[in-house]
Amino acid sequence: MSHTLNLPPVLDLNAAAPLRLSLLEKRGQSVTLDAGSVQRVGGLCLQVLLSSARTWGDDGHTFEITPRSAAFDEALALFGASGRFDDQNLGGN
Q1: By C-alpha distance, which of 72, 56, 76, 73 is closest to 64?
Q2: Is 79 exposed, middle or buried (0-12, 13-18, 19+ CB in 10 A)?
Q3: Has residue 74 been placed in a domain?
Q4: Which of 9, 21, 71, 72 could form a disulfide with 35 if both were Cys (CB 3.0 to 4.6 A apart)?
Q5: Residue 86 forms part of a structural domain
Q6: Is residue 90 part of a domain?
Q7: b/e per residue, 34-44, with b = 16+ CB within 10 A?
Q8: Is 2 helix (H, G, I), strand (E, B) or coil?
């Protein structure tokens, strides 16, 4: 069973700590993040998401981000992180 977490529209510095805590509460379980309403992604939240994806992958649990807004995908591209949340990359570099 996967737990869904809705991401806020703005993933900035103020959202990083609450995002981290919300994810820690779900550790040890498969999780799906809904990024469908995300309008802006900052570097610190991206680090939280990348670290979490790797942790979930290392723990053998599913970590999905779906749906994704165009703004979310564009932010990933700007940070050079396109493809980092694909299944084959979760436990990798």
Answers
A1: 56
A2: middle
A3: yes
A4: 72
A5: no
A6: no
A7: bbeebebbbeb
A8: strand
pLDDT in tens, 5-45: 999 999 999 999 999 999 999 999 999 999 999 999 999 99
When divided into structural domains, the chain yields a total of 1
> Whole-angstrom Cα distance, residue 62 to residue 85?
11
Q: Kindly give the residue spans of alpha helices, DSSP state H, lying in 2-93.
A: 13-25, 43-59, 70-78
Question: What is the reported pTM?
Answer: 0.90
In a domain, 87, yes or no: no
Mean pLDDT of 66-81: 96
Q: Give the tokens for residue 66.
A: 């779906």
What is the band of 87 on the pLDDT scale with cuts at 50, 70, 90? low
What residues make up the domain containing 59?
Answer: 2-78
What's the mean pLDDT in 77-89? 81
